[in-house]
Amino acid sequence: MMERKGIIAAGNMLVDHVHQIVQWPERGWLAEISHSERSTGGAPLNVLLTLAKMHTGLPLQAVGLIGQDSDGDYIMAMLEQYHVNRQHVQRTTFAPTSMSQVMTDPSGQRTFFHSPGANRLLDLPAFDRLDNSMKIFHLGYLLLLDSLDMPDGQYGTRSARLLAQMRENGFETSLDLVSRKGDPRYQPLVLPTLPHLDYLVINELEAGEFSGLEVRYPDGGPHIPHIASIARELLNAGVRQRVVIHCPEGAWGETPDQPGVWIPSQKLAQEEIVGSVGAGDAFCAGFLYGCHESWSLADSITLAHACARASLLCANAIDGAKTLAELKAEMPAT
Prior knowledge:
The protein is α/β, with parallel strands linked by helices. The protein has helices at 43-53, 70-81, 158-168, 186-190, 204-211, 224-236, 279-292, 297-312, 324-330, and strands at 7-11, 14-21, 33-41, 60-67, 85-92, 98-104, 110-115, 136-142, 151-152, 156-157, 172-177, 199-203, 242-247, 250-255, 258-264. A nine-stranded mixed β-sheet has the order 5-4-1-8-11-12-13-14-15, with helices on both faces. The chain has a four-stranded mixed β-sheet with strand order 3-2-6-7. The chain has a two-stranded antiparallel sheet with strand order 9-10. The longest helix is centred in the C-terminal third of the chain and has 16 residues, at 297-312. The chain is globular, with a radius of gyration of 19 Å. Pfam families: PfkB (PF00294). InterPro entries: PfkB_dom, Ribokinase-like. One of its GO terms (molecular function) is kinase activity. Residues 28-322 form the Carbohydrate kinase PfkB domain.
């Protein structure tokens, strides 16, 4: 039997128009933009381009829907530049390419103004006839893919149906969510997908929204017992291999048959952080590489931290990405 190899990432494809601003303005007032740049954004592009820049040699494939416009042309050019298979990136005249205007203040905190565009139309037929020699299928972001978030009579949601089909086709499956405060759909949209997942990689904000538990103490520090409790809840709800909940201070990882582990991140000084756009996706890219290569849970998380750290040193999602050799050299021993 042929060994499967490679990572497919699917879902939200967009262009981030990233602006560094002098300060966040009061409502009705002007704020000066000190620097602007364009970059790709969304889970599949951020994950795949980070992996491509790691120079691992893994086959990489993108699945998504973009418009017939200049932002769509830019996405296709970036995929070609980094040798990511774009055969399943379809184009439509019915909606523009999704885009975000991203405002990054001097602290590195970002605020998004998002236009969903063509991502709203991405649906099950786009996933027909994917390359079954690939190993991992990663989908992101749930709660931001309108057609896939629709109900399904048998599976609960269309995204749950999709993930079930991918597992039936022999893929290991992975999921990421969007950070959206106060969205009542976390449980109804996430729960149906969990039995069809091998890996769930989310941040502490999403974990808190899903569970209703406080994920930070009143002093702002991470509430690790609550984060651990949420990870166990997600495993009990069906995730088959690994749940990881990450935050700036570290990440909790857990499997069905091993005790959970907290792996702290390497701390960056506030002035070192240029922008946090895409840091979660960079984390996910490193983690998925570790899973693909059958690394231990702790080593996979440590590589994920290294990828996220590199991402924080640049304004956009992929400019900071480093080669695997560079990342390994910076990783502390686990």
